[in-house]
Structures are given as C-alpha cells and as structure tokens.
Write a structure and sequence with these properties.
Layout (H helix, E strand, L loop, with lengths): L2 H19 L2 H24 L5 H37 L12 E9 L7 E4 L12 E4 L2 E9 L4 E5 L6 E6 L5 E6 L6 E5 L11 E4 L13 E9 L8 E6 L8 E5 L4 H8 L2
Antiparallel strand pairs: 1-2, 1-12, 2-5, 3-4, 3-12, 4-5, 6-7, 6-9, 7-8, 8-11, 9-10, 10-11
Amino acid sequence: MPIPVLILGLVALSLMLLDLQGGVTGYLRQAGMTVGGPMQSWANSALGVIPTLPDQRVNTEELQRDLTISQQREVELQLQVDQLREQLDRRAVDPAGTELETISAAVVAAGPLLSRTTVTVAAGRNDGVDLDTAVLAGNALVGRVSEVGRTSSTVQLLTDPDSGVGVRLQGSRELALAVGGTDQQVLDLQLFDPLVDVELGQRVITVGSPDGRPFPAGLVVGDVTQINGVVGAPDRAVVIEPKTDLSALDEVLLVLPEGDGAREIRQQP
C-alpha cells in the first residue's frame, strides 16, 4: 500500500480517537467553522451555487439546441439575401430611376462555330420582343436584338466586329464609341478626342440612343483594362473588357419597346 495512503489512514484514525475523547477535534471543528464560514458565505454570494453535473449537462444541451436553431436561421437569412440580390440584378434601371420593362429569355444557341458574336434566345415577337432593342444581363449591356421570329430572336453581342455603341467614360463627359474587337472577346474604345486622359479600371457606360432605342442611357458596358500608347498618339489603343462574360450567357433580359404599340404587340396571339 502506498505510504501517503497509510499516512492519511493514520491521521483519520487519530482524529476519530481524539473525537471520542472530545476536546481537540471539537476545538478544530469550531476553528474551521469560524474561519471557513465567512469564506463560504463570500464564495456563495460572489460565485453562486456551483451547478451539479446533471445541471451542466442540461445547460450544454440547451446551448447546443440554441446554436443549431441560430445556424438554421442564418442559412435561411442568407438564402433570402441571395434571392433579393438576384432580383435586384434582374431589375435594369436607367439613370433617371425608371425601371425598364424587360422579359427574361434563355440562351438556346450560339453563333456559327461557337462565336462570341451572336446568340439565339427563346423569346420572340409573340413575347413582345422587337428589333433594335437592348439586351442585358442584370444592368449590364450585352448586345441588341438583330433578328426577331415568332418565338425566338437573334442577339448581336457587343463583341461582334460590326457592333458599335455610343459610350462615355464614367466620371467625365468624354464621349467615345465602343466597337467589337478583332479577337471577339474585348471591345475597342474609339475616342472622339485623342487628348482625353483615360485610366485603367475606368468604367464605360452607354450615352443613350434617341428615345432610348436601341440603347438606354447609363447601362454598364465594361471597364478599361488596357491602354497602349500615350495621350494624343494616333496609334493609342484603349481596350474594354465587357462587364458580363459574353461567352457564358445562359439567360438574358430583353428590353421591351414602350408605348401603346408595344402593348399591342404583346397582346397578339
């Protein structure tokens, strides 16, 4: 048997014997109550009653249940936020704050050899779509309607070499023309004033066509990503990357024409 255990046993037996005789252990017990009583009262008031193990287990289970409920609520709130963001992305708004009337359409085909110049969408004349109207992804311009059938339409993308959009540099009044680039992935910015200072990352937005057709004003086209040459040089080239990846379109918004004529078109069988 270990020595400490033996010592403790001897001490216990000694105290028991002394207790039978009275006097010493009573004095020790009284002294302990005198010294320890106030300390115990202070501990109870400051720390409270120490919970038993079953109480701790119940509290842990309640905390775990509350945590699970909070996590589920967080997932639900995040889902609502994502849905609201998606709805906002689908609402194209012009600078005046007027919501454009649009119709959503799935992209069902691309141009020849998977070119980035045209796509076919599943909406046409029966849906109120008309020629020379803007096509968007969120509030960013992707092209215009170039052909319209009864149930489908062809969209000429901004990257088509034959495409041209009047634009301006955001934060300035400088006008330019955004045309399709030769690699059908980016746009070339043709400045009307060769002395205009252009910065990398500068946003390019539409100027707006007369009566907003085909292009309403204030739609995002893209950002300046490359500048070759110096200010004033005849060979200076400014490149714009479209805001939307035109090679990965799966759904677009077609801006519907305004006025009574548009309503009559949409009412046709």
